UniProtKB/TrEMBL annotation:
GO-annotated molecular function: pyridoxal phosphate binding; transaminase activity
Organism for this UniProt entry: Oryzihumus leptocrescens
Cofactor dependency: pyridoxal 5'-phosphate
Protein name as catalogued: UDP-4-amino-4, 6-dideoxy-N-acetyl-beta-L-altrosamine transaminase
Record keyword Hydrolase present: no
Active site: K180 (proton acceptor)
Cited Gene3D superfamilies: Aspartate Aminotransferase, domain 1 (3.90.1150.10), Type I PLP-dependent aspartate aminotransferase-like (Major domain) (3.40.640.10)
InterPro entries: DegT/StrS_aminotransferase, PseC, PyrdxlP-dep_Trfase, PyrdxlP-dep_Trfase_major, PyrdxlP-dep_Trfase_small
Domain of life of the source: Bacteria
NCBIfam families per the UniProt record, alphabetical: PseC
Family: Belongs to the DegT/DnrJ/EryC1 family.
Length: 375
């Protein structure tokens, strides 16, 4: 079976991890600091906080904002459930707004209609790797004394109008799951443009521990002393995985270039096929394509999905609208709230896309699709 996504690991990655195993630190050591420094540069942020997953990154980001009961978060339903559930876990109410039909990203006009005096955050998702309309969403958030969070699980290495993903929002979250644009096996990060928010994220990530003598309530207790002023969780990413991440970051540009080539080959091979809609790309956006979200029209998505799977081609659907999940349904959310997102979901298939995919693999996928739609 040809997978729809897969990690790309080489000997340099293996050696980077082996060096950590030969050293004195397995966790919370120099490799963590190096990875966070490397991420900060790539993202154009003021600082980075590594965490154990993309879901942890969202939880940490929302906790850094102090989200709680009575607060609202406006976000898209066309995403993995964690974008919304991490806010709900903290007690906030999730308000879903519809997406733009070309990119699948949060529509600024729909988001504006969903904002209320209780809105504390607007969270856009870089669907498939295409950056959100950050200027419009940032302006909207700040006009309402809210914060823009960019869920960039799909898009590290991308940019908008020449600015890197990670520098476009107040807080940005990354995922480093194996199928993503680079991997730490499991892992994620929070980066930001506001030093205070990033510092709060770091404290929450580290169980809420405070060690800075200037911030201790009882500084004279002794050199061993540490305090917890607000509750946090242990979301620390170990040195082993951070070493892998720093090694992968050295090849991020190469990964992006290959993903661009594969996307262009799909576009060329499928451009003249009726019944399909290819991924949209807006002016100024330079995505790192994590997914190739093909849309299959005329109600034929399920049949093509089954045909491709039967042919040994791993495809996926991204994503079930978040409020369709029973946990949200049981909270009173109903289908039909975001019709553009629901139509997008009803048509979408993610084709195989990863750096080690060969041109022959791409052509096989294209030929199988073309043969099916001609039948």
């Amino acid at each position: 079976m040809l997978p729809y996504g897969r990690q790309s690991v080489d000997e340099s990655d293996i050696e980077a991890v082996a060096q950590v195993l030969r050293g004195d630190w397995l966790t919370t050591g120099p490799a963590v600091a190096q990875f966070e420094q490397d991420l900060t540069k790539v993202a154009g942020a003021v600082d980075a906080v590594s965490v154990t997953s993309g879901t942890a990154a969202l939880h940490v980001a929302y906790a850094a904002l102090g989200l709680g009961r009575g607060d609202e978060v406006v976000t898209t339903p066309l995403t993995f459930v964690a974008t919304a559930s991490c806010a709900a876990i903290l007690g906030a109410r999730v308000v879903f707004a519809d997406v733009s039909e070309d990119t699948g990203n949060l529509d600024p006009e729909a988001a504006a209609a969903a904002v209320t005096p209780r809105t504390r955050a607007i969270t856009g998702v870089d669907y498939a790797g295409h950056p959100i309309d950050a200027p419009a969403l940032l302006d909207l958030a700040h006009r309402h004394d809210a914060v823009l969070v960019e869920d960039a699980a799909h898009s590290i290495g991308g940019s908008l109008d020449g600015r890197p993903v990670g520098s476009l929002a107040d807080l940005t979250t990354f995922s480093f799951f194996p199928t993503k644009n680079l991997t730490t096996a499991e892992g994620g990060a929070v980066v930001g443009t506001d030093p205070e928010l990033v510092a709060r994220a770091r404290t929450f990530r580290t169980i809420g521990l405070v060690r800075d003598p200037d911030k201790l309530r009882y500084p004279d207790e002794g050199p061993w002393h540490q305090e917890v002023h607000e509750f946090g969780l242990n979301y620390r990413l170990p040195d082993l995985l951070c070493a892998l991440g720093s090694s992968q970051l050295q090849r991020l540009e190469r990964f992006k270039a290959r993903r661009d080539e594969i996307t262009a080959r799909y576009n060329a091979g499928l451009a003249d096929v009726e019944g399909l809609r290819l991924p949209g790309r807006r002016e100024g956006a330079d995505p790192t394509w994590h997914l190739y979200p093909l849309r299959v029209l005329e109600g034929r998505r399920r049949a093509l999905f089954d045909h491709l799977r039967a042919a040994g081609i791993g495809v996926q659907v991204n994503y079930i609208p978040v409020y369709w999940h029973p946990v949200f349904e049981d909270l009173g959310y109903q289908r039909g709230m975001c019709p553009v997102a629901e139509e997008y979901y009803s048509q979408e298939i993610s084709l195989p896309l990863f750096p080690d995919l060969t041109d022959g693999d791409v052509d096989r996928v294209v030929d199988t699709i073309r043969q099916f739609l001609r039948a």
